[in-house]
């Protein structure tokens, strides 16, 4: 994973190697940070950032859950994100915004500490190989239960949530799979370790509701909008573990991962074991939108120039 030359840190451009924080930073010890991952795509009209306003809105909503005060307004963070892509001369990249309680008092209470915001841009190296994205990935149902809103604000994109995800992903990799599917304490499917999840049966699209503890994903919302615009029936409803094996198709969605078909769940082949026709159709619409080749949802693209 290669990075840009500059990182935006509290309003200043810092050399990549010099963008450092103190070892006693509060967020490092207690997970008191929120973040966003955003994509910039190359289009016929130059680089364009996908759904930047929606990502920034979610960042501020996440901050609200942790009582974070930002010294910068949404317009300033938006402009800083655009500037970072331009300054680093990356037409196609992944943008990571993180806000965290910084160095000060080390106790569990983060409120005495200043909130720092950093923005970095990266050439994202895929954590799932290209051939897997074409053919489908192997998944297992994790033994780790997904944390729910009784424990932590699951609708906030907080770094603490991802300790749970990391354990599930490690478990999947140790079992020879590519990704883990997570179940909540009520026995319902939530999402994968770092992506939302969709299923197809009889040409109907299914996805769990966010009430299960799933993140209200931007790519998830994009797929739902694609379905509605193209008259693809979609049901947002609870799905139990034992239903997983009987769908015709399954796929994951996320900003970093985009849309990834699933070929196996717990060593059971899904459909014909390859990307399904409806998954392929949705992926086609998605690619057209993010590349600026669709007349629909043009407001989702923020062009640099």
Q: What's a concise summary of this model?
A:
The protein has helices at residues 26-30, 52-65, 74-87, 130-135, 161-174, 218-229, 277-290, and strands at residues 2-3, 6-9, 12-15, 33-43, 46-50, 93-101, 115-123, 137-141, 179-183, 189-192, 196-201, 204-207, 234-236, 249-254, 258-265, 268-269, 301-303. It has 305 residues and is α+β, with helices and mostly antiparallel strands.
Give the helix level as a range of percent.
25-40%
User: Which superfamily, in CATH terms, is the homologous superfamily of the largest domain?
Assistant: D-amino Acid Aminotransferase, subunit A, domain 2
Shape: globular
Q: Using the coordinates shown, work out and report the CATH topology of the largest domain.
A: D-amino Acid Aminotransferase, Chain A, domain 2
State the helix count: 7
Strand tally is 17
> Overall mean pLDDT score?
94
Element string (H = helix, E = strand): EEEHEEHHEEHEHEEEEHEEEEHE
Major sheet description: 9 strands, mixed
Structural write-up:
- With 305 residues, the protein is α+β, with helices and mostly antiparallel strands.
- It has 2 domains: 2-123, 2-Layer Sandwich (D-amino Acid Aminotransferase, Chain A, domain 1), CATH 3.30.470.10; 130-290, D-amino Acid Aminotransferase, subunit A, domain 2 (D-amino Acid Aminotransferase, Chain A, domain 2), CATH 3.20.10.
- The protein contains 7 helices and 17 strands.
- The protein has helices at residues 26-30, 52-65, 74-87, 130-135, 161-174, 218-229, 277-290, and strands at residues 2-3, 6-9, 12-15, 33-43, 46-50, 93-101, 115-123, 137-141, 179-183, 189-192, 196-201, 204-207, 234-236, 249-254, 258-265, 268-269, 301-303.
- The strands form 2 sheets. Strands 8, 9, 10, 11, 12, 13, 14, 15 and 16 form a 9-stranded mixed β-sheet that branches.
- Strand 12 (204-207), helix 6 (218-229) and strand 13 (234-236) form a beta-alpha-beta unit.
